[in-house]
Amino acid sequence: MQRKPDWLRKRITAGPERAELEGILSELSLNTVCCEAQCPNCVECFAAKTATFMILGTNCTRNCSFCNVTCGAPEAIDPAEPERVAEAVRRLGLKYVVVTSVTRDDLPDGGAMHFADTVRAIRERSPMTAVEVLIPDFQGEKDALALVTEAWPTVISHNMETVEALYDEVRPQADYRRSLALLGRIKGLNPTIRSKSGFMLGLGETKEEVIELMGDLREAGCELLTIGQYLAPSKGHHPVREYVHPDIFDEYKNIADAKGFSFVASAPFVRSSYHAGEALGL
Ligand code: SF4
Ligand code: SF4
Questions:
Q1: Residue 23: which CATH number?
Q2: Per the confidence metrics, is the pTM higher than 0.70?
Q3: CB-ligand 1 contact for 222 (6 Å cutoff)
């Protein structure tokens, strides 16, 4: 693996907000992506009252080569989890919450109803909080997506993660067209919900492929976009093929803006939930 360039060096300091979050998480037996993945943005996000919760367990039924989540036997659904997430959001006074999950191909609805229950529970306790759900593809099940849109989250996000040519290599159980189709259905089910996606650079994609992906997303009606640098969790994961210079991220942002996305965050440290509230003017 190449040496990390200077622009990717960022110290993670544990601020008081992080200690507060960790205390509440352990008391309520919850997981956040922020802490689990030791996200480099946690200081900024917690200060901006944003956090990302992971529901439906920590074992995924898929095995993407870029991802650090464990692939293993899925856990039983905890029916009290939506209320506990809602309680954590209330206690932390979050302005923007992202709810995501591992992929649960073992469940008939892919976990969609659990997502919907979590959105409703958060709305009940924190009506002013913007709620984004970052969902798996539900294996393309239209009814599953409808369960989520009926709960009326502020944003529905589904990450494309990479360009079409790399799907077999890095997302073997996913399907590029199925993911696009899922994004394309959101507005038809509820036009007031904002649709969002994200992908990483540095997995081995070409510029033409990236531009094509952005075009496909716009055709699917996707409004909000995040682009960040892929960082390999270990030597056993898909290697980083390139540390993309910040200027190239700026170039992609300009291209994406010209394609008509209403909000684009494109920089090495951008993650799908980074500065998420800004997309809504929060
Ligand atoms: S970018 Fe997302 S995962 Fe990282 S700290 Fe912010 S909210 Fe958490
Ligand atoms: S489906 Fe999602 S959580 Fe599961 S391995 Fe792939 S990226 Fe990770």
A1: 3.20.20.70
A2: yes
A3: no
